[in-house]
Every structure is written in structure tokens, then in C-alpha cells.
Amino acid sequence: MKAPKVPLNKRWKPLNYGESRVSAKKKESGRKTIADNRRARYDYHLDEVVEAGIVLTGTEVKSLRQGQASIAEAYVAVAGDELELVNANIPVYEAANRENHHPNRVRRLLLHRREIDKAIAAVNRQGRSIIPLKLYFNARGLVKLEFALATGKKLHDKRHTSKDRDWKRDQGRLMRDRG
Q1: Phi, psi (deg, nearest 5) at residue 104
Q2: Bridge-partner residues for 84, per DSSP?
Q3: 55 versus 7: which is more confidently predicted?
Q4: Class of 31-172 in CATH
């Protein structure tokens, strides 16, 4: 008995090296978010968003692969002519030995000199803040930090943001109910 003919576009195609059929959705976006600072959009006017590398130890990366981290209380500080991530909590990796890392240690950010100088100038001259937004693995599997140069919101700005968000929610309900 002969096998049925399968059209060319329906045939099985081999995968490229490092590609899997299961993780296709993750590959499309190219990033796997580890930690997100959702409160930053409420507390600050975000002006310019920048992606930076971060210096980590092996146990920190393993802990991040388990999806454990918090940047809610973290901030980026200027130390000399470098930028550092302060107070980011990456918990201790339980399977490690005595060479484990300290959970809240200061971590250096990796940027081009031009980007560092621009951020330092914004902090020193314009009084802006550097706020971490996301910590994630990029498509190559490297840990990246997305931060923004921001200015703080006043109380009335926060009320206005909340009011706009509520109105958008109500507007969506009205449109959905009217069909």
C-alpha cells in the first residue's frame, strides 16, 4: 500500500539549531520578562527609555532563570562616571554553595560611554531620575535592564492619570455594552 501524497507546504520541516516548536511564542517577542516595575508609570513621567546590560554573577543568573527578582524598590544611581543598579532584590540561589551572592548588592550597568554621559547630564543638570522599568532575558539569553530618564509626578498629575485610566475603562465598557 502506498503512502498518501502530502502537498509540499504541509510537509515536516527540520528545525534550526537551538529552535524548538514549543517555545515559538517566546521567540516571536524575543524577550522573557523576569521583573516589572509597574508603579513607575504611575509615579513618573517617562521621557526616554534605554536598554542596558548588567554585570551579574553565575548564581544571580541561575536565580533569575527561576523567575525570582524584584525591582520595585530599585533605582539607578550615578557612581563616578558609571551607572549602578541599587537595591534590586535577586534572591539567593538555594542550590549554590558558600560562594552565593548577596541579594541586594549594587550591580554595575553596561552602556556605551555616550549613553552614560547623557544619563549623568540629565540627572545633574535637569534634575531627572533614572527609574528601572523591566528586567528581562533578551533573544540571545542575556539579562537586560530597561530603564527610563524620568521626572516625578505631582499629586495632581497622579490624580489626572487615575481619572483618565478610569474613563478609558468606562468607555470600553460602554462601547462593549452597546455592541
Answers
A1: -110, 30
A2: 77, 108
A3: 55
A4: mainly beta
E strand spans, 55-106: 75-79, 82-86
pTM of the model: 0.71
Higher pLDDT pick, 92 / 154: 92
Task: Give the model confidence (pLDDT) of 124-164 as tens digits.
Answer: 888 888 999 999 999 998 999 999 998 887 888 788 888 88
Query: Shortest CA distance to 130 belongs to which of 46, 56, 53, 39?
Result: 46
Closest by Cα among 26, 95, 37, 98 to 66: 95
Cβ within 8 Å of residue 130, ≥6 positions away: 75, 76, 77, 78, 83, 119, 122, 123, 147, 148, 149, 150
Amino acid at 3: A
Domain boundaries, the chain: 31-172
Mean pLDDT for the stretch of residues 100-117:
91
The cell for 62 is 541561575
